[in-house]
Design a protein that fits this description.
Two copies of one chain form a homodimer. Chain A is an alpha/beta fold and 204 residues long. Helices cover 38% and strands 18% of the residues of chain A. Chain A has eight helices and nine strands. Chain A has helices at residues 8-26, 34-41, 45-53, 67-77, 93-99, 103-106, 154-166, 193-199, and strands spanning 31-32, 65-66, 84-89, 109-116, 125-126, 129-133, 147-150, 171-174, 187-190. Chain A has a seven-stranded mixed sheet. In chain A, β5 (125-126) and β6 form a beta hairpin. In chain A, α1 runs antiparallel to α4 (67-77) and α2 (34-41) packs across α3 (45-53). At the A-B interface, α1, α5, α6, β8 and α8 of A face α1, α5, α6, β8 and α8 of B. The structure holds a DNA duplex (22 and 22 nucleotides).
Chain lengths: 204, 204
DNA sequence: CACTGTGAATTCCTTCACAGCG
DNA sequence: CGCTGTGAAGGAATTCACAGTG
């Protein structure tokens, strides 16, 4: 396909494809058609074919997509073929839940550091990591950490984000209910549970 | 404006507007222009004007939107002018974090019940509520609970969802990394932190 | 005059329909 | 033949440009 800008929405669906292909890998499936994959993911077959085709022709006509190699392809497109180290900032209840959540490893993430500003918490261990003083955030650059998960109170979020960016962080997943002011080169994904829940009553 | 279908995306932005207007209320601002609001929310002014105009003409030409009454309007559009009771299913680390998160109250949510299947946890209190046995989920209907937050392991999510729906739940916010099979009348919002994080390395 | 409200234009994304290939 | 890959069509959301109004 001649080059066309890859839609943002396609990128957002890629991890879904990867999860599906990972599952198929563990089921030892050899091939999967867009039809069958669509049923699993509740998408339309052409959507899947178009999405994947943005990155090249992975499929075999008449048969489908080879599970093994397509999984690898998607992993390398998303740069998840190498272990991605992430720092977790905030070791409160939410941070603790995240630190002990094993779902990240499927995508090759490694929560390589946990920071907090509470003297009580520093030095304690959660999810197998020792909580460090937030003042040591500057060390992430030298530790090969480019991503951060922010699970701090809204008031602290902007300050933490500033420190993280100064320390060389390139992408942030924020769970604080506020907008972060960041340079354009930094990719920020923001999730606010209350806001997501806020749309539900409308549909009642 | 003659009737036009309200875009899904507009609905998704409404809680953002509500949060902004709530803040403006507490700052005792009388009016706000789409221009200024757009700067706060990092949106374009016409976007905001169009979104709000789907629900009627709330603004005053030459001045802007009256903070107090627009906030009330949005609250009633989203059905957040009345207290919305929600059940939390799963009192693990994530559930505990959610139970003690105060951000929901800004939108008028009340976590009115917490369920878990772990005998160890039943009877204990988190976030001011007593954890109930998941077998009592059927009681939500009679307790005026129409919404649920699902924070259980992926394996348990579908079963819980089925029980919730049988009990009369109309909307679900799921934090489990899996697709829920539900009747079309049920609104489901699904958030998978690992998948959200999964897009970040792509942009590095 | 400064703002909102809104058709029209544009951009973006999805779906279709079928050509192309194993 | 059965599937993928893709240009073209269709649909949805955003942005523009300006008419309308307190």
């Amino acid at each position: 396909m001649k080059y066309r800008k890859i839609p943002e929405e396609t990128i957002r669906r890629m991890p879904r494809y990867l999860r599906a292909f990972s599952t198929l890998q563990s089921e030892n499936q050899g091939y999967i058609s867009s039809q069958l994959l669509a049923e699993r993911l509740h998408l339309n077959p052409p959507q899947i074919r178009k999405d994947l085709s943005y990155f090249g022709a992975f499929g075999t006509r008449g048969i489908g997509y080879p599970v093994q190699s397509t999984a690898e392809q998607i992993r390398s497109i998303l740069k998840l073929n190498i272990t991605q180290r992430a720092a977790l900032v905030g070791a409160g209840r939410l941070g603790t839940a995240i630190a002990s959540y094993h779902g990240f490893s499927l995508f090759g993430f490694d929560i390589a550091a946990v920071f907090d500003n509470d003297r009580q918490k520093i030095g304690r261990r959660i999810g197998g990591r020792t909580i460090e003083d937030v003042s040591r955030i500057g060390s992430v650059g030298s530790r090969g950490i480019q991503l951060a998960i922010l699970a701090v109170p809204a008031e602290a979020a902007q300050t933490c984000a500033d420190q993280l960016i100064k320390a060389g962080i390139k992408g942030i997943l924020s769970l604080s209910p506020c907008y972060l002011e960041t340079p354009k080169r930094i990719k920020v994904i923001s999730i606010d549970l209350a806001m997501e829940l806020g749309t539900l009553p409308y549909y009642l």
